[in-house]
Every structure is written in C-alpha cells, then in structure tokens.
Amino acid sequence: MSDLAIYNAKVYIGREDFCQAVLIKDGLIAAVGSDSEILSRTPKGARIYDAGKRTVIPGFNDSHLHLLNVGETLSCIRLQGADSIAEVKRRIGAFIEKTKPAQGTVLHGTGWNQDLFKDEKRLLTRYDLDEAGMGYPLILERACGHILTADSLALGLAGITGETVPPEGGAIDLDENGEPTGVIRENACYRILRLLPKDDPEAIEKKLRIAMAYAAECGVTSVQTMDMRPGKWRETLEVYKRVQADKPTLRAYQQVNFMEPGEFKEFLEEGYRTGMGDRFLKIGPLKMFLDGSLGARTAFMREPYRDDPSNRGILTMDPETLGTMTGLAEANGCTAIMHAIGDGAVDMALKALETVIKGGENKLRHGIVHCQITDRGLLERFAKSDILAYVQPVFLDYDLTVLRDRVGERLASESYAFNTLKKLGVHESFGTDSPVEDMDPIRNLYCAVMGKGLAKRSGGDIYPDEAMDIYDAVDAYTSESAYASFEENIKGRIRLGYYGDLCILDGDIFECSREEISNIKVEATILEGRFVYER
C-alpha cells in the first residue's frame, strides 16, 4: 500500500460539499480538509500530488458488467459502431489479415447492431458471413448478446439444420425454404457458442488483465461482474484469485450465473455465499436471466410488440424455476438478482422477490438488473419491497432509436425511469453491461443527466423529468453501487476510514453544463492510494 496526499483539488464529499485535499495512508482515507491541513499531516516518503484544481471523486463502481467478455471483445473482431453490412465484412477481412488465424479456427466477433446500418437495417445472415469469412467458421454476436449470426461452416459444425429443434427459451430463424438463416436467439445460442475454442486458464487470465487495464483507464476501481457461469465457474474463480493476488488494479464482486437448481445447489454445498472473500475479490449474488433485449425483440413483454404484433419476446426461465432458485438463495443467505428488460419479465422478477421479501425488509438486497420497460405500478413495487435497481442510462443511446416503435408512446413515457426510481427511494446503481456498451462512465453520466443518448439520432430529451442531477448520478455510480455489495460503509465516499479508491477528472463535472459532461476525461485512477492509471 502507498501513502498519498492529493492537494490543490476539488474533492467531492457530498452534495455541494467539497474540500481541497485528501490523505490516504495504508490504503484508507486518513484525512480530508484544506491544503495546509493535509500537507501538514503527510508523512515523509508519501507521494504528494498536485491536482491542479482538478475534481476528485470516489472511484467509479460499475454495478453490472461482464469483465471477462470485455477482455474477449478487446481481443476479437470488434464490430461496435459498424454502420453497414459492408463495414462488418470489411472488419472481418481486416481481422483475418492482421491476425492470420490457423485455417479452421472458429472466429468470434461482437458488437454489431442492424439498427445502425445505413444500407439495409436487417439482421446479418449466414450468407453475409459466407461472403466475408474466407473459409473460416464465423460467429458474430449482436451488441446485446442475445442474438448471434453464424455462417454456414459454423452451422454445419454445430449440426444445426432446418430440422433442429431449439431449446426452451431459444429460437433458430428459418427462411422461406425452411433452412436456417444463421440467426440464433437466446438459449439456442449456446449450441453455437460451444464451438469457440475453450479458454485455458492462461487465456482467461490474459483477457482479464486486458479488461482490468481498460477499467483503470475509465476511472473504474470496482466492478460487479458476471463471469462465473455454469460449467466453468470454478475455473474462472481460480483465475481471478491468481490475478487478484498480484498487484490488483480493481476490486471484483462476482455475480454468479446459474439457471437451474442443480448446479446452484452444488455451489451452495461447497460453502459459497454472498459476501465471501477479501477486499479485492468477493462472491456476490446469484444472477439469473429472465428475457433478452429490446433491440432484438426478445425482451419479454406483457403485450405484443407494437412493431411486431405476433411477438411478445422470449422468456428464458419459467416462473416455477425462478421461484425455486430465488427461494434457495434466500434460504441460504445469498442475494438474488435477475436480468429483466421487458415489462413482462420485470413483473415476473418482482413477483418472485415479493414472495421472499417479508414486510418490505429486503435484508439480502435482492435486485433487478436493467428494468428498462416499466410503468408506474411496477416502479412503485420496487419501492414497496425495497428492491434494488441496477440500471444502465447509456442504453438510451441506442434504445431511443427503437423504443417508441417497440412499445408505444404510453409505455415509453414510463420506462427508463431513472429519476422516478430515485424519487421513490429505490436504491439505484449505475452500470454499463459492458461490453454491451463501452465501460466509460462519462458516457453513462451524460445519458443520465441529459435523459437521452449521446448521438444526434437520439433527438431531444426522452422525458426531462427522468433526467437526474449530477450529484445523484455520481452517487448512483459510487455510493449506491457500494450499497449493492454491502460495502457502503467502506467504499463509495471520500470519508475517514473508507478505501482510498479515487478518480481524478480533468474538468469540473459538478459545475460544467450538462452538454459539456461528455467532454470530460479521466486524468488518473487510484486504488488504495496507488496510481493504477495516469493519462
């Protein structure tokens, strides 16, 4: 651990409360105050950092992402922002030319979004990929992670034909001749994804370190990450232990994914519970998926999609299994959180949690991740049972382009209700779901305070009443995220005895205009008084 004094700064303590300097000793905040007070208390040998009037806030805590997948995304075919099918094909070719993979290697790409295509706003098909793959099996995941497209070689390797019956909670798209188009949805994706080379521990470690370095660049000092999945959670946990034992650059709280009781019971029988671990690596909640995404029209809705009246989305877990899993978590002292985007999935999640939360006392801090499509009644149920909301304001950047078409004006007007949740007293934390969206917290904060996306295509404010003020937005990214992991008394504030995890910004995020927030950059990131990133 390092001793560090930061002075000549604007240090955020709380709403409209700032000081000039902060001292970190033995990894913890030892004092906050004026420049003279802190410098007089700084021990010999400590690093003394002149912040040049810059703003200092607690390190960002992303309350829901997929860190290992971030490392994968930074290592594979990157399709984020591709604005045409032709551009997707160009990037595939460029990746093959640059990396020169061995013939027969199954290639993986992520991040494409048909709604951003300027030529044809349609899903990629096997035939698009067949033209671009140069003889390599290709699997390209849509930005949401709930749809993928596979080329003909990959479909053949997976044994998928027009006769293949998809698993419950999944779908395989067929053309007019009854042949697979290459588009695979939800639970059916796993049959294709199994073709990807299985990472050995060294490959997993490499991807984690790549992702952790990027997190430091973003000012992120803590993540609540869903990397431990069925069938490989033990291996992933062991790699994390090794990485976190060697000069860690962030803290990781594992959201552990199980979708059926059998393997979750094994996890419990081995003694794992929410909160186990040390200050750098802890077991977090059980994480379950109830539906898909709005962009893919697989989010589960109570009524059919306005732009697809035959479709209500895909439910990826039945209510009975959800009830069993939630009951197991509650009985064994584990937090349960659920991916729910459509209002039908949010309603199902609320019902399951209301069954185990008695008298509005949510002692295990159960919660719902995303909770995008809602109405007032659903929002009030969050507050009544003290259910946590893990939200991603940056989703507005894309979702506003399709929201009203998907769900209609009335339901859209009560969705993405960030400010309403805050006013209702709901514990609301911010995350990015990276790599679905970039991990950059500044983008997220901008969308939260503007009530709209970053791009001009998003138009004006979605509804000004849902735009948060900057203090609430920063707190949602720091102290509220700490609350979600039972760490609000040690993390997320610049207070005596709290972790010395800080982020230094190059501009005053509290005084600049809302529009100017997107221009702010992370100047430095500090973990326990040690600089893990400097621009």
Descriptors:
535 residues, alpha/beta, Diaminopimelate Epimerase, Chain A, domain 1, TIM Barrel, six-stranded mixed β-sheet
Could you characterize what this model shows?
Helix 2 packs across helix 7 and helix 17 packs antiparallel against helix 18 (470-477). The strands form four sheets. An eight-stranded parallel beta sheet has the order 8-15-16-17-18-19-20-21. It is an alpha/beta fold and 535 residues long. The radius of gyration is 23 Å and the shape is globular. 31% of the residues lie in helices and 22% in strands. It folds into three domains: 4-58 and 497-534, Urease, subunit C, domain 1, CATH 2.30.40; 84-193, Diaminopimelate Epimerase, Chain A, domain 1 (Roll), CATH 3.10.310.70; 201-484, TIM Barrel, CATH 3.20.20.140. The mean pLDDT is 95.
Compact description:
By secondary structure, the chain is an alpha/beta fold.
Report the sheet with the most strands, covering strand number, pairing sense and barrel closure: 8 strands, parallel
Portion in helices: 25-40%
User: Tally of extended strands?
Assistant: 24
By CATH, the topology of the largest domain is TIM Barrel
Which radius of gyration do the C-alpha atoms yield? 23 Å
Count structural domains.
3
Beta fraction: 15-25%
Instruction: Output the strand order for the largest sheet.
Output: 8-15-16-17-18-19-20-21
Q: Could you give the distance between the termini? A: 21 Å
* CATH homologous superfamily assignment of the largest domain: Metal-dependent hydrolases
* Shape field: globular
Q: Which architecture of the largest domain does the CATH hierarchy give at level 2?
A: Alpha-Beta Barrel
What's the quaternary structure here?
A: single chain
